Amino acid sequence: MYGARGWAVICLSSFIVFVIFPVLSLATPQDSAFHISQYWVTLLGKVMCFAIVAIAMDLVWGYTGILSLGHGLFFALGGYSMGMYLMRQIGREGQYQSDLPDFMVFLDWKELPWAWWNSDQFWWAALLVVLVPGLLALVFGFFAFRSRVKGVYFSIITQALTFAAMLLFFRNATGFGGNNGFTDFKRILGLPITTPETRMMLFTFTAFVLIATLLLARWIVTSKFGRVLTAIRDAETRVAFCGYNTVHYKLAIFTLSAVICGIAGALYVPQVGIINPSEMSPANSIEIAIWVAVGGRGTLTGAILGAGLVNFGKSYFTQAFPEYWLYALGLIFILVTLFLPQGVMGLLKKKT
Amino acid sequence: MTDNANASNESGGFGHIATEGLDTTHGVVLYLEDISVSFDGFKALNKLTLSIDVGELRCVIGPNGAGKTTMMDVITGKTRADEGSAFFGQTIDLARYSEAEIAHAGIGRKFQKPTIFEYHSVFENLELAMKADKRVRKTLVSVLSSGEKDRIAETMKQIRLNDSADRIAGLLSHGQKQWLEIGMLLMQEPRLLLLDEPVAGMSDDETERTGELFLSLAGKHSLVVVEHDMAFVEKIARKITVLHEGSVLAEGSMAQVQNDPKVIEVYLGR
Ligand SMILES: Nc1ncnc2c1ncn2[C@@H]1O[C@H](COP(=O)(O)OP(=O)(O)OP(=O)(O)O)[C@@H](O)[C@H]1O
Ligand SMILES: [Mg+2]
Q1: For chain A, which has fewer Cβ within 10 Å, the N-terminal or C-terminal residue?
Q2: DSSP E strand boundaries for chain B
Q3: Residues A46-60: pLDDT tens digits?
Q4: Which residues are bridge partners to B26 per DSSP?
Q5: Distance in angstroms (rounded) separating the CA atoms of residues A235 and B118
Q6: Which helix (H) or strand (E) holds A274?
Q7: Per-residue pLDDT tens over the stretch B214-242
Q8: Could you say which DSSP state residue B157 is in?
Q9: CB A240 to CB B109 under 8 A?
Q10: Beta strands in A138-272 (DSSP E)
Q11: Residue B141 near chain A (CB below 8 Å)
């Protein structure tokens, strides 16, 4: 799958996230020069979640040529699935000391809505994280691909989908906390969620999922299945005339991609401590596409790199000049489209 | 091989039709009857009737806009006929299947404009086209057997691209792309090949070798060749069909159609 150099990079990165980070964050005193603060653990943890999303996006866009502008929705659905469990883990420690989540008490609800069935079980939450985005992608993709919706039309209807979902989730009656969403989490799997140890656990698990996703994606794109996907991107009719049912292929990769996004969302929520409908805003999904474009479509390393560069840039920018981030992002996108069609990876390849 | 046969049997639900079962008892591989297609009232095909025998090499000629490409579109499921029927063998009603299913059933098509996978290597292009179980879960775990590698190598030799196995297809010359596309068709092991202007853009030398290739394929496969290059047609043709305004104007040997007054009228009269 990878050459010696590729594996060396993966091993080195694993060593950093699995050994150096935990040691420097947990076993060094706060005032030591080597100490890694919670800020950095959370930031890198977040960026790794985005990198997972970027890989998922690259599989459908970079490799298969389907520009989905609704991937933020799948991410948010994974996040909400996990968020429901985290809300239930609060137990009676909420403001109203009720068994029900605070927002339900506030709305004067007497019992959990049906969608919250079994939501106090972790395994159930984990199942929803995979099933909700997966099934939605499967059903939506089935109708879109079967009706041969392509190109910019597909992008537009995916934007509409995430926008519609956002409006739905904004409503209190939908039963997921309205515009405040879920927050004030206390525990995960019974462990207090804000301690450095729990955070490091979430961090290393995210790193593990990122590496697993990368290897899975790599395996896919180097298989014959992956070659069919790129062939669909370049000449879909020819693929059909070779005897492949392209609808099945597009559906398979779109659904897998949505599931991966859902998992990333589920890892993201306990680390940042909040999920609300703004995660479903159309702009969020566009941002995902920008990460991939910046890093380089059609290379997995590029997707990770793009997510990293843009998001570290964003965290710096939003502190230094908070109002200008969106302009900066737009500018980056225009510059990359005009001068770096293959993203940063294209630039690196040219150099070597 | 047995494994493949089983797979296609159990795959009824996936819409694959078994090629082994192609019924050509009357010696006819393709039969079009009274096919009409109109685009916004304009009749691109007008009660076209045509039959191709097993192992035959048929040339189809006709002025621009005669409906040659549209005919291929109808056969391969890209365009649906408004009227008439199209049968592959005795039993397969082409109107009922999708492009992929028709391809799988054994009809291969070369487009007027070469369409290959530009970012894949020559080898990979042939690999993707190769006859195999083409369902998602099979391609995920598919590994090339040595027999399959040999077949790809053989085809590369046949289309004279054996030195370019790892070459990215987009970098090939126009003529080489045409050949690669023909090679991809051969990898599908089709019973019937539809070739839309296969020698357009080829050098004289390449054209000549393409003619030889087609002649060697006839017999084992059935071929329908659409071409404007009359010198080429003359060299390979046994039976020629002349299409005009969406229906058959004349049919017969080169000498017969050349002397047919209707054909002369259409080609020279204006
Ligand atoms: N999708 C379409 N929509 C509208 N008209 C079409 C369409 N496809 C073909 N036509 C028309 O149908 C007629 C037949 O076209 P076709 O491409 O089959 O001709 P042809 O015999 O292949 O010609 P050429 O030798 O130029 O390739 C033409 O007049 C063409 O303009
Ligand atoms: Mg044509």
Answers
A1: C
A2: 28-39, 42-53, 57-61, 83-88, 92-93, 107-110, 192-196, 222-226, 239-244, 247-252
A3: 999 999 999 999 999
A4: none
A5: 8
A6: strand A274-275
A7: 999 998 999 999 998 889 999 998 899 99
A8: H
A9: no
A10: 182-183, 187-188, 191-192
A11: yes
Q: In what order do the strands lie in the sheet with B83-88?
A: B42-53, B28-39, B83-88, B92-93
Nearest CA, atom 7, ligand 1: B39
CATH topology of domain B2-106+192-268: Rossmann fold (3.40.50)
Strand ranges across the sheet with B57-61: B107-110, B192-196, B222-226, B57-61, B239-244, B247-252
CA separation (Å) from A307 to A54, A257, A264, B136, B159? 6, 16, 13, 29, 44
Question: For residue B149, what are the contacts with CB-CB under 8 A and spacing of at least 6?
Answer: none
- Residue of higher predicted confidence among A234 and A322: A234
User: Which residue bears the tokens 């685009």?
Assistant: B39
pTM: 0.92
Quick one: average pLDDT of A13-40? Answer: 92
C-beta of B70 in contact with ligand 1 (< 6 A): yes
Report the range of poorest mean pLDDT among A165-169, A257-261, B16-20, B83-87. B16-20
pLDDT digit string, tens, across residues A202-212: 999 999 999 99
Q: What Å distances lie between residue B143 and A225, B40, B146, CA to CA?
A: 11, 47, 10
Nearest bound ligand to the CA of residue B73: 1
- Whether the per-residue pLDDT at B138 is higher than 70: the answer is yes
Q: Residue A352 has what pLDDT?
A: 66
Distance A351 CA to ligand 2 centre (A): 44
A184-193 exposure pattern, b = at least 16 Cβ within 10 A, e = fewer: bbebbeeeeb
Ligand 1 pocket test, candidate residues B40, B68, B113, most atoms within 8 A of CB: B68
Determine whether the interchain pair A230/B120 forms a contact, defined as Cβ–Cβ distance below 8 Å.
yes
- Which residue's CA is the closest to the ligand 1 atom numbered 30? B65
Distance CA(A200)–CA(B243), nearest Å, equals 74
Q: Is ipTM over 0.95?
A: no
Domains of chain A, residue spans: 1-36, 39-282
Cβ of B120 within 8 Å of Cβ of A231? The answer is: yes
Does ligand 1 have an atom closer than 6 angstroms to the CB of B244?
no
CA A121 to ligand 1 center in whole angstroms: 62
